Amino acid sequence: IIGKGGNIINTIKKETDTNITVSSINELNSYNIERIISIKGELDQQMSALETIFSKLWLAYENENARAWHYSTQYYQQQQMMQNFAQHAAMIATVGATGPPLLPMNYSQQQQQQQSMVHQTQTNNSNNSSNKFMEQQPNLSTIYPSSYY
């Protein structure tokens, strides 16, 4: 309401031909948390000044609420984005270690992926012989869509 150097309150005083005083900010304490605005002049001038002051206060209130809503919305959006990122990162880490890549690979990476895989299998031999290793070609149609090879 006061403005820089009192320019807003002085403008209202001139427009309404009233004397307006605002209590000092130094008078605020734990018992008195509000500032008091006094308006002196003719009744219609006082009403005009009061309407102008009220409209300025209401505009400031709406702007503050809009700003608070914007920040809370922005905070919520950032939280959602971080949560989605964490979920996708966990999925990439899980699938990337055991399954097909989630992003397209270049040709040399595809060749490395297509090399034969070695699987270790347990044998149930009665003579307790060592484990067998079997070499097996992957079934590319189940790993990669046709556009990758």
From TrEMBL:
> Which GO terms of the molecular function aspect are on file?
RNA binding
Ranges where the record places region Disordered: 107-149
Q: Specify the superkingdom.
A: Eukaryota
Compositional bias ranges of the Polar residues kind: 132-149
Key words, A-Z: RNA-binding
The UniProt entry, under Gene3D superfamilies, shows:
K Homology domain, type 1
Query: What InterPro entries does the entry give?
Result: KH_dom_type_1, KH_dom_type_1_sf
Entry's SUPFAM superfamilies?
A: Eukaryotic type KH-domain (KH-domain type I) (SSF54791)
PROSITE patterns listed in its UniProt record: KH_TYPE_1
* Keyword RNA-binding tagged: yes
Q: Return the protein name.
A: K Homology domain-containing protein
Report the source organism.
Answer: Rotaria magnacalcarata
